[in-house]
Amino acid sequence: MSLANGRHYLAIPGPSVMPDRVLAAMHRAAPNIYEGELVESVATVRQDLKWLAGSSSNLAIYITNGHGAWEAANMNMFSRGDKALVLVTGRFGVGWAAAARQIGVEVEVLDFGLKSPIDPARVEEALRADPSIRAVLMTHVDTATSVRNDVRAVRGAIDAAGHDALLAVDAVASFGCDPFEFDGWGVDVMISASQKGLMTPPGLGLVWFSDKAKEAPRTDLVTPMWDWGPRTDFSFFYEQFAGTAPTHLLLGLREALTMIREEGREAVFDRHDALAHTVWAAFDAWSLGNPNIGLNVADPAFRARAVTAARFGAPHGTAIRAWTEKNAGVILGIGLGMAEPTDPAYHGFLRVAHMGHVNAHMTLGVLAVMEAAMKALDIPHGDGALAAAAQVVADRA
């Protein structure tokens, strides 16, 4: 017998849970792509994306995913032979560096490991040593490690070095979950995508960019598809998308942003903060009975509010994921980037997402299912995790 029949819960860090309202908004015939409802709706989508990002600057919307948003940013920031300083705190920093390197950018990497945030002092030192660096690339939240970095502190390091480098931030995992202040933090380029905190299917890549980035000399890499100029300064609606608009994704995103507006920007951030603390409380209790169980990031100040990376010791991470999906319909995230898939240690990690359209009963349910898996698999763990998690909900409700 399986207890997994019923609606499954995708507790992975993207694509996240899509609200019924978003799905319903897309379940309709294609609209007019030349005038009327869609054109008017996309104008409000652009306004709300800037509002959510704390941005008064420019925005380009691409038909792509987060990896494509990396490429869009790279193509507009760099020419061949330019230098990038990439600050790595996990798999996605490595990925952005590789994407830049592949198009001819000279990449210098500062790697802070898999558990620690960026050290601004090292950033300042690197910039003082090389005035030719064109841009500093960083992740706000690395989806693999769940390390959350201090964007404002990195901006401070650039300024302290007296450097003119652009600051570019990958906010794919954090956008709509953790607070972000594009203008207030001095960001020049920010990327995100539709499938995480924005609760919309994969397919939209988003790039915000400052006037400084916009007015920089034109690069020799940008192509008509990636050029962010026409996507923000357009005469005709189709120019925003270099062709036919992704109509149904835009309709879904419009509804998702309406839901965020209804809840309130700060309330959305507070909800994600509370649910993250709920997960952390459970892990604190489980770890008391097994030192192999623990969170990847020790300091709560540097933990993502969208996803939590954790360890259980091999092979228990993979075993728990398999059990929860087969027996309870809960799909947990793999331990991406913590070890190579061919390394037995790979099977000791997993991730719990709490991003987007997620509430207390969903998060408490995931934790209860994980504890059921540990009991079924005879994995030692401390007592009181569910009571501790419930107490966080009671205190924050």
Walk me through what this model shows.
This protein has 397 residues and is α/β, with parallel strands linked by helices. It has two domains: 9-16 and 265-396, Aspartate Aminotransferase, domain 1 (Alpha-Beta Complex); 31-261, Aspartate Aminotransferase, domain 2 (3-Layer(aba) Sandwich). 40% of the residues lie in helices and 15% in strands. The protein contains 13 helices and twelve strands. It has helices at residues 20-26, 37-53, 66-77, 91-102, 120-129, 151-160, 211-214, 229-232, 247-263, 265-287, 316-328, 360-376, 385-396, and strands at residues 9-11, 58-63, 83-88, 106-111, 133-139, 166-170, 189-193, 204-209, 294-295, 307-311, 330-334, 349-353. The chain starts with 8 loop residues before the first strand and ends with a helix. 49% of the residues are buried.
Helix vs. strand class: alpha/beta
Cα distance spanning the termini: 36 Å
Order of helices and strands: EHHEHEHEHEHEEEHHHHEEHEEHH
Largest sheet: 7 strands, mixed
Beta fraction of the residues? 15-25%
Average pLDDT confidence is 97
A few lines on this structure:
The protein is α/β, with parallel strands linked by helices and 397 residues long. 40% of the residues lie in helices and 15% in strands.
List the helices and strands and how they pair.
Layout lengths: L8 E3 L8 H7 L10 H17 L4 E6 L2 H12 L5 E6 L2 H12 L3 E6 L8 H10 L3 E7 L11 H10 L5 E5 L18 E5 L10 E6 L1 H4 L14 H4 L14 H17 L1 H23 L6 E2 L11 E5 L4 H13 L1 E5 L14 E5 L6 H17 L8 H12 L1
Parallel strand pairs: 1-11, 3-4, 3-5, 5-6, 6-7
Antiparallel strand pairs: 2-8, 7-8, 9-10, 10-12, 11-12
Helix pairs in contact: 1-9, 2-9, 3-4, 5-6, 10-12, 10-13, 11-12, 12-13
